[in-house]
Every structure is written in C-alpha cells, then in structure tokens.
Design goal:
four-stranded parallel beta sheet; 8 helices; Dna Topoisomerase Vi A Subunit, Chain: A, domain 2; Helicase, Ruva Protein, domain 3; about 200 residues; about 15% strand
C-alpha cells in the first residue's frame, strides 16, 4: 500500500497525454527522490505557464506577449501564411529555419465523427487576414491524415475565391526510412509530391 499523496500524484501524471501508469509511477518516484526545490521549480513553471501564456489574437499561436513574436517580427514575409492545426506544429516548422512567413493556427482539424465542424476551428480569423489583402500565398500544412486532408480541402475551397495561391505541403516517405516499410497511402503521396531533380 503506497501513501495517498503518492497515489494522487501518479493519478495526476496519468492524465498527461502519452503517460501510462508505469511512466506516471516513474515520474512520481523521480519527484519523490529529488530535493523539494526541484519540485517547487516544476510547480512554479506549471503555474507560470497557466498564468502568463495565452494565444495570439492574430494567429492563435502560444505567446506571452501580444501579438506573438512571429506576428510582430520584422524579418517575416507577411505575404505568406502557413496554416497548421496546433501550436506545436509551428515549433516543428520553425525548427527547420526555412520558413520565414507568418502562421495561422486552426486549433484542431475537421472531424465530423468527433463533432468538430468548421465553427469549432479558427477559420474566420484566417479568412479575415486573407481578405484584408497583402497575402499572396496560403500554405496548408495540416497533418497527413483523414482529418487533415479534409481540413485542407475545405480551406482550399474557402480560400480560392480570394485569388491567393493555395498550396499544400508535400508528403511522403520520411528521410532515412525504407520504401518496403511505407504504407500505400504514404508511397502514393510521395509519388504525387515528386519534383524535378
């Protein structure tokens, strides 16, 4: 029988995405073994995020300033908007250091089976930004799954009347993998997204 506070901590850790019972136990015992100061720092960091981090009123990315550093940055190409599903997708694209445009975070993807329709996403803000002019291209960088594809197709239909170029990120076989292990849809997308060499 373990102490009630430890059981409660394990239960709370399990509520985090991707953390099962064993991982929650490892994390809880790690916290228990280390000094109180480290636990206090973790608690402070969690509370600080909840108190200070919000969503940008322009692009919906996470931020602690308004508007976010990307929307207010001088070196960004304001003629290009990359549309992603979630704020963590922005981090993935920014890590490449290749994209210099702006972003728009939808906060999800269309999923009728889960009750997520167009009104549940941040689509109106995107249409307003494009409608205000100055945007030449919208890159649809939604996830390569059924929901992401449906969202991209839906957005393309809404954006075409604005006269902007609408593109979709290429998808296919990941670098370092073997074709024999790729599924049919991945190989199909890789063939579709091929380019001149």
């Amino acid at each position: 029988m373990q102490p009630e506070p430890l059981t409660r901590l394990i239960e709370q850790m399990q509520r985090l995405p991707g953390i099962g019972r064993k991982s929650a136990q490892r994390l809880a015992f790690h916290i228990l073994r280390h000094p109180r100061s480290e636990a206090d720092e973790l608690c402070d960091a969690i509370c600080d995020v909840k108190d200070r981090v919000t969503y940008c009123s322009v692009c919906n990315n996470v931020t602690d300033v308004e508007p976010c550093a990307i929307c207010s940055g001088d070196g960004r190409d304001r003629r290009i908007i990359c549309v992603v599903e979630e704020p963590q997708n922005v981090l993935g694209i920014e890590r490449t250091r290749d994209f210099k445009g702006l972003y728009h975070v939808l906060m999800g993807a269309l999923s009728p089976l889960q009750g997520v329709g167009p009104d549940d996403l941040k689509i109106k803000g995107l249409l307003s930004r494009v409608g205000n002019g100055g945007v030449d291209e919208v890159i649809l960088a939604t996830n390569p799954n059924v929901e992401g594809e449906a969202t991209a197709i839906y957005l393309a239909g809404l954006l075409k009347p604005f006269g902007v170029r609408v593109t979709r990120i290429a998808m296919g076989v990941p670098v370092g993998s073997d074709l024999e292990y790729a599924d049919e849809i991945t190989v199909h997308k890789a063939m579709e997204g091929r380019r001149d060499v």
